[in-house]
Amino acid sequence: MRGQATRMQKIALPLGFGLLVVLLWEAMVRGLDIPLAILPAPSEIADRFAASTGTLWIDFVQTVIKGALTGMLIGTLTGFAVALLIDRSDFLRRGLLPVASFMAALPIVGVAPIMVMWFGFDWHSKAAVVAVMVFFPMLVNTLAGLGATDLMQRDLMRTYSATHVQSLIKLRLPAAMPFIFNGLKIATTLALIGAIVAEYFGSPTRGMGFRISTEVGRLGIDMVWAEIVVSAISGTVLYGLVALVERWVTFWHPSQR
Amino acid sequence: MRRNIGPILVVVLAIIAIWYAGSFAMNRAWTMDQAARAGTEPSFSEVFRDTMNQDRAVLPAPHQVAAELYDGIIDKKVTSKRSLVYHGYITFQATMAGFALGIVGGVALAVIIVLSRAMDLTLMPWAIISQTIPVVALAPMIVVLSNALGADSLMVPKAIIAGYLSFFPVLVSMVAGLRSPDAMQLDLLRTYGATKGQVFWKLRLPASMPYFFASLKIAVAASLVGAIVGELPTGAIAGLGARMLIGSQFGEPMIMWSALFAAALLAALLIWVVTWVERLAGRLMGVQA
């Protein structure tokens, strides 16, 4: 296994592992005769998935597109912009960075009931929860990234008599990219959690969180698993896109080698 | 740190001022509505006083939240079902159990992934996928399964959910940390004829320590989120997450706000302890301050 892995290995190995888990799951459910209400077999989940693609699509649009993606866009862009602004003032950076890092670590998901109270049951409250949740990680990571260059590099830019914007674009933003993408990756995983948790505090009669909580009550566990499959696929695609862009932007970083 | 206290104070004071202004603006509609129904014309100071003290305010004023917190933490007996210390302790237990699970799982997986290229290709995509599955969705399943396997308290599923969220930051940081030695350092050890094991113990592991401790702060915070989220769909009646749900269902904003701030206080406490441990470990390992 020395050297670069081939494309074959990169796809076949995780796929094989996944298939193995699914096969063991199927065999376990059938062998031990586990009732549907506890753990459905993958084949039963696949049947349910195929039979309710319409409902799943409606839930996907409601939760992922309207709730999570809108919120993520608002939250990350605001976080990035505020970081650029704060970075200009030493006073603000010294004052806001500790406060923002502190906020980033708090269980912000707890604002979900408050946002639902403020913005109603529809997707606006979900987007608001997601935006607040991703804002602080994005802000802190961008600020940390902007501080990632060392004194020597910044001095070099100064000897070139670079302006603030020039040294930002040519030195500090590229150096900040690994941190910014780290923030984006955190945001992708937070976004779906936020959007679904917010639905638990109230939602219209569609959305993944709504479907999951009602189907658990009706013992429609196969439908719950179908929703889990949808959320796993959308989350993975989202994360994959961020990782792909990161690989392209930060090709120079040791962790990409 | 000391030279930052001035700016931090200014920022915090500004936030509190904005919060008060927000309370006034957001609660004003209800006050005016009430006044219009009673047929009175309240003066500005009357409106202001009313917006600051509504029981079901849209945005309770900071002093209301502070009073509610003081009442829930100091005034109520710890054994009382309305004490925030009681609910916080329930959540804290699940957080710690999940944190321990997360550290062990995250470090073990990271070591396996860094040492074996095949495992890296096999497991890393699945570790990432595991995080994209929202735990709230899995939570009822985890409760059902752990009940079927014989765990009768809610602690087990909550700890699993918390561990599920907290292992990932440890894993990602440890993989990055164990791979952080650059080509020159690795080449140097190769010229010494070091074995794979020696490279791991003498270069990769020490190099990963700053990454490890940095991830602990994120992991403990994620674990707390997991414990709180785990209380939402599992039918828990005790714990900070359960308080938020109760506040939401009964339309009691003060319960939601006090539970939110109690959770924030708990998070701050946990992170403070982890930071202290990080400093201690750094000093023991000879990190230059």
Summarize the structure in short.
Chain A has 257 residues and is an all-alpha fold. Chain A has ten helices and no strands. The longest helix of chain B is centred in the last third of the chain and has 36 residues, at 196-231.
How would you explain this protein's 3D organization?
The complex is a heterodimer of chains A (257) and B (289). Chain A starts with 6 loop residues before the first helix and ends in an 8-residue tail after the last helix. In chain A, helix 4 crosses helix 6 (123-146) and helix 8 packs antiparallel against helix 10. By secondary structure, chain A is mostly helical. The mean pLDDT of chain A is 84. In chain A, 80% of the residues lie in helices and 0% in strands. Helices cover 80% and strands 0% of the residues of chain B. Chain B contains eleven helices and no strands. Classes of the chains: A mainly alpha (257), B mainly alpha (289). At the A-B interface, helix 1, helix 4, helix 5, helix 8 and helix 9 of A face helix 1, helix 5, helix 6, helix 9 and helix 10 of B.
Low-confidence stretches of chain B: none
CATH superfamily of the largest domain in chain B: MetI-like
The ordered H/E elements of chain A are HHHHHHHHHH
**CATH domain topology of chain A:** MetI-like fold
Structural class of chain B: mainly alpha
- Identify the CATH homologous superfamily of chain A: MetI-like
User: How many domain regions of chain B?
Assistant: 2
Helix and strand pattern of chain B: HHHHHHHHHHH
Termini separation of chain B comes to 13 Å
Helical content of chain B stands at over 70%
Q: Count the helices of chain A. How many? A: 10
What is the CATH top level name of chain A?
Mainly Alpha
CATH architecture assignment name of chain A: Orthogonal Bundle
Strand % of chain A is: under 5%
Mean model confidence by pLDDT of chain B: 83
CATH architecture designation of the largest domain in chain B: Orthogonal Bundle
Number of strands of chain A: 0
Strands of chain B, count: 0
User: How many whole angstroms does the radius of gyration of chain A measure?
Assistant: 22 Å
Biggest beta sheet summary of chain B: none
